[in-house]
Amino acid sequence: MKRPNFFIIGAPKCGTSSLAAWLGEHPQAFMSEPKEPSFFDTDNELGVAKTLTQYLRIFENAKDDHLAVGEASVGYLFSQVAVRNIIEFNPSAKFIVLLRNPLEMVVSLHGEMYWAGWECIEDFETAWRVRNVRGFGRGQVGPFCSDLRFIQYENACKLGEQVDRLLKTVDAKSVLFIFLEDIKLSPSHEYRRVLDFLEVPYDGKSEFTVHNPSKRERNQLIRHARLYFHIIKRKLGIPFPPMRMLKAIFVSKYKSPPLRAEFRQELIEVYRDDVMLLSSLLGRDLSHWLR
Question: From residue 252, how far is each of 12, 115, 213, 247, 248 by CA, in Å?
Answer without folding.
Answer: 20, 12, 10, 7, 7
